[in-house]
Amino acid sequence: MTRDFKQFPDDDNGNVLWQMQQDGDDLSVPHEIEYSIAFSTQEQAEQCALYLLKEEQKISLFQDEESDRVEWIITVYVYMEPDYEDIVDLEQWFIKIAEQHSGEYDGWGCMAYIYEDDDLDEDEAQLS
Fold first, then answer.
1. Model confidence pLDDT, tens digit, residues 61-100
2. If you average pLDDT over every residue of the chain, what do you get?
3. Residue pair 47/103 in contact by the 8 Å Cβ criterion
4. Contact 12, 105 (CB under 8 A)
5. Where do the Regulator of ribonuclease activity B domain residues begin and end (predicted)?
6. Element (H, E) at 54
7. What are the strands of the beta sheet with 58-64, ordered from one edge?
8. The CATH number of 29-127 is which of 3.30.200.20, 3.30.70.970, 3.40.50.1980, 3.30.565.10?
9. Measuring CA to CA, which residue among 36, 41, 47 is closest to residue 63?
């Protein structure tokens, strides 16, 4: 399959989405995408968490003790189709929010949803 650079531009986000599609992930199905923001203090993270909750965002907050320095991480869970333009728009919003609360946007990720034809045939047979 030839890469459509309008749908999958040649940058980090486009490359991840293109790889997801190449791996068989159905990008027309909504995924729970996780966006992360890192903070150096608990107070900064809690202030940002309150802001995001007021914006009706689903979040989690935890202390990451495995990094070289102790960080507080907010993960924002957004249920959406993994579309390039939407991801870029949300990233810009999260970057702005992170900066307003002295944090740093730390990227996004999601679980892949890969269906094999054999799995579908078995499911269809069970429904008959």
1. 999 988 777 799 999 999 999 999 999 999 999 999 999 9
2. 89
3. no
4. no
5. 11-110
6. helix 42-54
7. 58-64, 71-80, 31-39, 104-110
8. 3.30.70.970
9. 41
